[in-house]
């Protein structure tokens, strides 16, 4: 299929039908058979020229989007749901080997007016769905704002300043699109964003959350965060971060709190991806976070992965340092309790941004325990089995995530001043804690005795005491002190005797 621009001064560009989602053929036939005016628009067209795979299709259509969506869903074996009722946008979801989405929006006047209402030039291009997409033929590209030129130049260019007034969430979408595509924001677009930045305060928290999460999900999230900061957006989203700027740290730290937090996000990405730039870690077999990609790619909150949640925790892990900073008479800087207060602040921030309870709990737990792995040993000594067991018991579902955060925190603290021998010792300790997590007695311990048995055999009424005894048994089992039911019962008896007898 050849595609030519509607502007005669532009050359003809060719694109293979394989670059478009295969679903486009079925969709075009659906509208053609009904003689309905419809256009392929937005990211689908953009991604085709960039050779990017896309499973989402955006369509502007002349007609009743709700009824057409239901008909299309019935034909393709999918479901039709309202996406934005105020703008009559519906979504058709088709579940196959992978979920494919078709978003239908109304064409109120004509395609030129529709494109004028869009956000960026590279998304203001359209292909009419009036041709037979099964044939190799020349098809017109409608490109009134020269989006194709910006696409080839690698520039994100806003159509006007007013796109941000119409939808302030676009203020975040611009840097996110820049990061996603590896494009630059035009100077004019940057200026418009800075002038309009305060508008995001009027946007629904849920939409800000979703766009912000998409941004930090992308690779090079640290670059994107610095871009947000330069545009005046980061401090509006999370004002608490502004207070971390220029907060000095002990001599062990290379950066102030703000830059350290951003660098921690960068190090998390390197650890998870095993990026070649992470030369300090990649040769060390003890630290292999990138080998558990399935773990970090697990969707856990608001449709986002562990990888995204840990980057968010990296950004917030020292959020309480400004409020906890003290300087001793000797000049030593301390941040006592910043991990615990930081967990509370993280909860407040994420609640304000309408995160799910799961997401809030995960991030706050990582922040609360981010220091713990490095406090489990002294010098080059390995952590004790008891310390390791208690770490996994207390941190629970985000224990591995917290180990990764702790490692990233360590690397970000030292920066270019990192000493190789110190790193070797640190990697051995973190690697040892990771390895221990795979032991059956920690991962899936066999239950030697249950609460009902304890109550019956020792005449103890229901209550907190049963839980305490069960925890005592589990810990003794994990560190290898007991491995049978009788040993567990003997331990319970010993504990009851030492505390003054049974509950009878």
What attributes does this structure have?
Beta Polymerase, domain 2; six-stranded mixed beta sheet; three-stranded mixed beta sheet; 504 residues; 50% helix; alpha+beta; 15 strands; Hydrophobic Seed Protein; 4 domains
What can you see in these coordinates?
- By secondary structure, the chain is α+β, with helices and mostly antiparallel strands.
- The protein has four domains: 2-153, 2-Layer Sandwich (Beta Polymerase, domain 2); 162-237, Hydrophobic Seed Protein; 270-442, no CATH class; 446-498.
- Helix content is 50%, strand content 12%.
- It contains 25 helices and 15 strands.
- It has helices at 23-33, 43-49, 65-76, 111-116, 147-153, 162-166, 170-181, 187-196, 205-217, 221-230, 234-237, 239-242, 257-273, 293-296, 306-316, 321-324, 338-352, 357-369, 385-395, 399-414, 420-436, 440-443, 451-458, 464-478, 485-498; strands at 2-5, 12-14, 38-41, 56-61, 79-84, 89-95, 99-106, 126-128, 138-141, 155-156, 184-185, 299-301, 304-305, 325-327, 333-335.
- The protein has a six-stranded mixed β-sheet.
- Strand 1 (2-5) and strand 2 (12-14) form a beta hairpin.
- Helix 15 (306-316) packs across helix 18 (357-369).
- The relative contact order is 0.06.
Secondary-structure blueprint:
Elements: E1 2-5, E2 12-14, H1 23-33, E3 38-41, H2 43-49, E4 56-61, H3 65-76, E5 79-84, E6 89-95, E7 99-106, H4 111-116, E8 126-128, E9 138-141, H5 147-153, E10 155-156, H6 162-166, H7 170-181, E11 184-185, H8 187-196, H9 205-217, H10 221-230, H11 234-237, H12 239-242, H13 257-273, H14 293-296, E12 299-301, E13 304-305, H15 306-316, H16 321-324, E14 325-327, E15 333-335, H17 338-352, H18 357-369, H19 385-395, H20 399-414, H21 420-436, H22 440-443, H23 451-458, H24 464-478, H25 485-498
Parallel strand pairs: 1-9, 4-7, 10-11
Antiparallel strand pairs: 1-2, 3-4, 3-8, 5-6, 6-7, 12-13, 14-15
Helix pairs in contact: 7-9, 7-10, 10-13, 13-15, 13-20, 15-18, 15-20, 17-18, 18-20, 20-21, 24-25
